[in-house]
Design goal:
The chain is an all-alpha fold. It has 4 helices and no strands. It has helices at about 15-45, 70-95, 100-120, 130-155. Helix 1 packs antiparallel against helix 2 (about 70-95), helix 1 (about 15-45) packs parallel to helix 3 (about 100-120) and helix 2 runs parallel beside helix 4. The two termini are about 40 Å apart.
């Protein structure tokens, strides 16, 4: 008896619908942050480096009047320092049977925290807006929680 199974794209179940579903909003926000850096580079003709020329502006540590290129770079880099690992941890949990409702809520919270960190924190008056601390602390909580959840889901592998 010879049985053949033919699968095509229409019959293979989506293995990562949560992370796949959140890819678009996170990518759109990444592009916004990236384009803000590009805008500052073009506006100030500073095509390389993370700060404006010192002859033009040298106040990267000044909270009241921050270097606009440095500020936009930090917004982008803060996003890139956290979100890729968040996606990896979420995908690990999802592939190991994590609750998709829980994972969706977690990704929604992470998105809100990343936006709050930048829009209501770093880009607010004096770069010290009310979204800055909750944004980063919430993101760290997300990373810790998602890593713990992923570990919990595979506890049987370790004999527990």
């Amino acid at each position: 008896m010879n049985a053949t199974i033919e699968l095509d794209a229409h019959h293979v179940p989506g293995m990562l619908p949560v992370t796949g579903g959140w890819a678009l909003p996170f990518t759109a926000y990444l592009l916004l942050l990236s384009n803000r850096v590009i805008y500052q580079r073009l506006k100030h003709r500073q095509y390389i480096g993370g700060r404006l020329n010192s002859s033009e502006k040298d106040n990267t540590g000044d909270h009241e009047n921050p270097d606009p290129l440095f500020l936009e770079n930090r917004c982008l880099m803060n996003f890139l320092e956290n979100v890729p690992l968040a996606f990896v941890l979420t995908a690990i949990a999802e592939l190991n049977g994590g609750d998709r409702v829980y994972l969706n809520y977690a990704m929604a919270a992470l998105f809100a925290m990343r936006v709050a960190h930048v829009e209501l924190g770093l880009r607010a008056k004096d770069t010290l807006g009310p979204g800055r601390a909750p944004g980063i602390l919430g993101t760290q909580g997300f990373l810790t929680g998602m890593a713990a959840y992923g570990t919990y889901l595979v506890k049987g592998y370790w004999g527990y």
